[in-house]
Amino acid sequence: MSFAYLVYASAWIKYHYPAEFTAALLNAQPMGFYSPHTIVRDARRHGVEILGPDLDASRRDATLEPRPDHVEPVGRPLRGWCAEPSHLAVRLGLRSVRGLHDALLDRVDDERALRRFGDLEDFVRRTGATVDQVEALATAGVFEQCFGQSRRTALWAAGALGTARPEVHRDGTVTETLPGVVTGVDAPTLPGMSEPETLAADLWAMGLSPSRHPTEFVRDELARQGVVTAADLRGLPDRSVVEVAGIVTHRQQPSTAKGTVFLNLEDETGLMNVICAKGTWKRFRTVARGAPALRVRGVLERHQGVTNLVAGRITRLPISLSGALSSRDFR
Question: Same domain for 89 and 107?
Fold first, then answer.
């Protein structure tokens, strides 16, 4: 009864307050069955706008803010998934960026409370952020809006600004260079990042993307080859032979399943349940267990409102994830 009540209460909050629900889940990480990437993708499908981290607008954790007028809606939420599109957007927190420890986030909060950061050099001097930390922030696009610096120009400056960081000696004394004398900060004219490059940067820096999903960039080619989406499965008849593709979010092998392995795949439209019988798993084990993204051909099964794909063939989906997304396996 307790678990049933939690499920009902969670579903009610998600239906009526999808943005608040998403922010709360992100701020409770690490926890739960689903990764932050899957939580963000699900929120977007429920009509929630996800905004990337920004040095001025973001706090330590994810926060809520009015949905910006210039941002077009993600798309009409699927019928019955939420009461209505949320008028609030979720702003990702700085904690979502890799390599930022609490001490640095405390310094950012303290310095920002005193006055706004003037530029990237001012940020490094006042917070003592390391080159690696500045590079992670730059890759996540944290300086784009506040300083008007593209990800590439901020990455260029990050290495040079390593000398601007105050140096604390063993005797407790601190030395630092004079403001404005650091050389090599100004980058030459650099091309902007393409959408695939921006996606790769987000995945590397945060393990999630507030904008697009990796399978979107190969969808046209997949469609030409007859590969359907998770959303397409809802309209296909039982026992259809279909092929799907997506990144692997989970691999599960319960001790009571007698060798059967259950996979979850995710594409830009949703999640798919894949059942691998013992023989199928053994035949395709190497690719099924090691590849971060898969193509699966099998038979569609519907039972009591649940849609599964019984795998018959499993192949690797050639998509670049740069090791940024990892599945949660065999828990």
Answer: no
